[in-house]
């Protein structure tokens, strides 16, 4: 679930956006592999922090898997940055150990891992 600014009108602007930022932690194991971490929990240049992950069903992601934040570094916290075939200069995040599964924002409030990209919807 992703909160919008309107969901927390009494939260100061700076505090809301401090917690809303993510950073990429590049991994040396593979070209373009990274973790996506909540920036406020990630120490610069060090391991740790809250990583974006996704739920598995029978050791595999389903056609649609909800995302979660976790302290663990497990296979579902690794992503590969790939060029978008639909938008020049844009990128997609593909699950590194589950090819063909991508992070998407599904309006109005869901960030999920999906096994198919629906142009114009995801």
Could you explain the architecture of this structure?
The model has no long low-confidence stretch (mean pLDDT 84). The chain starts with 12 loop residues before the first helix and ends in an 8-residue tail after the last strand. It has one helix and eight strands; from the N terminus they run H-E-E-E-E-E-E-E-E. The chain has 122 residues and is mainly beta. It has a four-stranded antiparallel sheet with strand order 1-2-5-6, with no helix packed on it.
- What is the number of helices? 1
**Assembly level:** single chain
Overall, the morphology is globular
Note the gap between the termini: 15 Å
- Unreliable runs, pLDDT <50, ≥5 residues? none
Strand order of the largest sheet: 1-2-5-6
Main beta-sheet annotation: 4 strands, antiparallel
Write the element-wise H/E pattern from the N-terminal end onward.
HEEEEEEEE
- Mean model confidence by pLDDT: 84
Query: How many DSSP E strands?
Result: 8
